[in-house]
Amino acid sequence: MNTKRLFAILTASALLVGTLAGCGGSEDASTSESGGETGTVKDVQVWATGSDNVRQTFEKLVSDFNANSEYVGTYEAKLNFILSGTGGGTLADQLVAAYKAGQTDTEFDVVDLGDDDLTKILSLTDESVLEDLDMSKIPNAEGVTAEPVAAKGKIQPYRGTTVILAYNSETVPEDEVPTTMDELVEWIKAHPGRFAYNTPGTGGAGDSFVRTSIYNFIDDDSALMSSDPKWMEQWDEGFAFLKELHPYMYKSGSSVVYPNKNQGTLDLLTQGEIDMCPNWADMVLSQRKAGTVPEKIKITTIEPSFTGSVQGIAVPSYSGNKEGGFAFIDYLLSPEAQTILVQDMAAIPLVTEGVDLTGAEELMSMDVSNFRTQALGDLVTDLNARWDEEIGTLG
Q1: Hey, what's the signal peptide range on this chain (predicted)?
Q2: Which residues of the chain have pLDDT under 50?
């Protein structure tokens, strides 16, 4: 096992990066069907994190990159996936640890980063943790107008995602579907026990509901994009609002229950236990397409909206194969990869020409440039802890 592989494995399991040194990108001799050597193929270590549906999609993307992309015979992608909510060090923690350890040649070749992970990494390091994007090596990025929340020129957006309001169209008449937060609150209070959001920290939909509920009471729009602790002083009104809603949430027996994970609320909605919940657009649409969520489950947006974002991908400055990292980024913006993202997880595509949107036509109405983005960095830990203490214990 080469030193660089050892570094990645130990980092993923125990964050033991400080004592490990890497070596150059691994290479394999590839052969033609007749057995002759056709050249060397360099491994590209792809790192991602998230729910299991994200893992499954990345497995398909990596497989397609290796079998069908223009980079076949030059690079071979290897997936390193960290399932969210499983304990241990996060991907962001590992990237920060590698940077602070002074690593220069690692197997973190290209990394998938959401807004929270990106802002956390930047708050603990600086933008030099990421390599400047070489746009000459990412021709498929031409025409992509979406921008990241930070580190522009360092991280490339490749898909959009947003939290929406999911509802049962058989129990919620069209003229009763909320269009604003005020209307949603009225509906919740008029239908006690028929609404739920998942515990923040276990899934992004519940996170979005809690964060937007709190930050709707803060007049400065920049607050949702800041990790400055000063904003904690303005959380009181939002937490009072969440306490007010608490008695109207979904109950099991006589106690209010906040489901675990995004899937928990979606399961309650699908089973008819509730009539409405916040959830990810891609999660609802992809499961509806697969038949595990019935057609009667529809999605809508409200004003002020829940949060949405563009997911980005970047090459760390200490990547051992930067060229391969850029190749994988370019592939993610190809029509083939964008189609996989749409069809497998109902991601909002950032490239539309040549992309198959069959079954996910609702995505075309979602403009990523109008998303209400948020990136709270380390404040998320404090916010979730306060929710656990003040809301989660109400019973």
Answers
A1: 1-23
A2: 1-26, 29-38
**How many CA atoms are closer than 13 Å to the CA of 371, on its beta-carbon side?**
28
- Is-contact 380 116, C-beta < 8 A? yes
Entry field: residues in the chain: 395
Per-residue confidence (pLDDT) for residue 3, from 0 to 100: 41
Q: How far is CA 236 from the centre of its chain?
A: 28
The pLDDT of residue 14 is 41
DSSP state of 260: S
The answer to whether the beta carbons of residues 149 and 119 sit under 8 Å apart is yes
Q: Which amino acid is at 161?
A: T
CB 226 within 8 Å of CB 371: no
Check residue 39 and give its pLDDT: 61
Token pair of 65 as six digits: 């990159």
According to the model, what pLDDT value does residue 24 have?
40
User: Would you state the pLDDT for residue 9?
Assistant: 40
3-state secondary structure of 49: strand
Q: Which of 121, 106, 265 is nearest to 196 (CA)?
A: 265
CATH topology identical between 3-160+309-362 and 161-308+375-390: yes
Q: Within a 13 Å sphere around the CA of 325, how many CA atoms are in the beta-carbon half?
A: 28
Q: Cβ contacts of residue 296 below 8 Å, gap of 6+?
A: 168, 169, 170
Angstrom CA distances, 304 to 177, 182, 196, 205, 230, stand at: 15, 9, 19, 15, 23
Fold of the CATH domain 161-308+375-390: D-Maltodextrin-Binding Protein; domain 2 (3.40.190)
pLDDT at site 282 = 84
Task: Tell me what pLDDT residue 32 has.
Answer: 31
Half-sphere exposure of 213 (CA within 13 A, CB side): 23
- How is the chain split into domains, by residue range? 3-160+309-362, 161-308+375-390
